[in-house]
Amino acid sequence: MQPLHLEVTSVQIPTRRTAEYSVEMEYIGAAVVGAGLAVVGVPAAVAGLGFAAGGIAAGSIGSGLMSAAAIANGGGVAAGSAVAVLQAVGAGGLSAAGTALTGAVGAAAGAAAAAYNG
């Protein structure tokens, strides 16, 4: 009996590189980038407005918003108002739910931008 000799010169590996697959991956990539930018960018933007861990920075946009909110509410800032929420984010960052929501909105915006530009 003679030994069996096999020679493999090339191997074809099936891939799913279709036009639809490429478009799907483009949307997924854009969604991931959008989510990442939103989760990092929102707290940075809030800090840029003057809402910080130590309070609202004097002379900032945040201090102007707080002043307007206090005047509109008879001297105080209403709990749950935009100024109160921004100050909470500035003081402690986004909560887990806030991070999830921000990421989801960023992902949707990224995918929408990819669809619009695609």
Low-confidence stretches: none
Question: What is the terminal separation in angstroms?
Answer: 62 Å
**What is the general shape?**
elongated
Q: How many strand segments? A: 2
Radius of gyration: 26 Å
Task: Give a quick account of the main beta sheet: strands, pairing sense, barrel closure.
Answer: 2 strands, antiparallel
Strand content: under 5%
In total, the number of domains comes to 1
Q: Trace the largest sheet across and list its strands.
A: 1-2
Please identify the structural class as seen in this structure.
mainly alpha
Fraction in helix: 55-70%
Instruction: Count up the helices.
Output: 4
Question: Please, what is the average pLDDT?
Answer: 83
Order of helices and strands: HEEHHH
Describe this structure in words.
The protein has 118 residues and is mainly α. It has one domain. Helices cover 64% and strands 3% of the residues. It contains four helices and two strands. The protein has a two-stranded antiparallel sheet. It is elongated and about 100 Å long.
Brief summary:
This protein has one domain (20-103).
Short descriptors:
transmembrane helix, IFI6/IFI27-like, mainly alpha, two-stranded antiparallel sheet, membrane, transmembrane, IFI6/IFI27-like_sf, 118 residues
Please describe the topology of this protein.
Blueprint: H1 19-48, E1 51-52, E2 55-56, H2 61-72, H3 82-92, H4 96-117
Antiparallel strand pairs: 1-2
Helix pairs in contact: 1-4
